[in-house]
Amino acid sequence: MKKSQRLKVIVDLNARHEQDALQAMGFSLKTLQEQQTQLENLQNYRQEYLAKFANRQQTGISINQLMEFRAFADKLDQAIEGQRQVVVNHEQDVQRARKQWEEAHQRTKSLQKVSDLALVEETKIEQKREQAEQDDRAARSGRKDGTGSA
After folding, report:
1. Residue 98 domain-assigned?
2. Rounded to an integer, what distance in angstroms lies between the CA atom of residue 29 and that of residue 125?
3. Torsion-angle region of residue 62: left (phi > 0), alpha (psi -120 to 50) or beta?
4. What pTM did the predictor assign?
5. Residues 10-29: tens digit of each pLDDT
């Protein structure tokens, strides 16, 4: 097996690894977007809840209702803060996945260049060999005709 063929196998394996890394990055991005949407939903719900409570406050509420509101608002704030941390963690996951893909992509490109150079070298060697064979045939043909000797 020629060097270029062996390298092509390695390039193909690295290309598959790169593709897997790209899919992992895509999955990480999708998960991040879902978590960001969840955070936005929680923040929007909190705003709606505060607006609703402000309207109820104008008509008057009991101390129990006020305490329930504050307790629920605190729980929403905790949920929002927890979701923010989830988003931060997923952002870090996306960065790691992107770095792994970039490294795999660079490795594949480098190996492809080495493979291409090997193929070019093999082609040059093959062309030189063919030229030498043609020269030998021409020299032998010339000797048989009697025109090759001086």
Report:
1. no
2. 48
3. beta
4. 0.72
5. 999 999 999 999 999 999 99
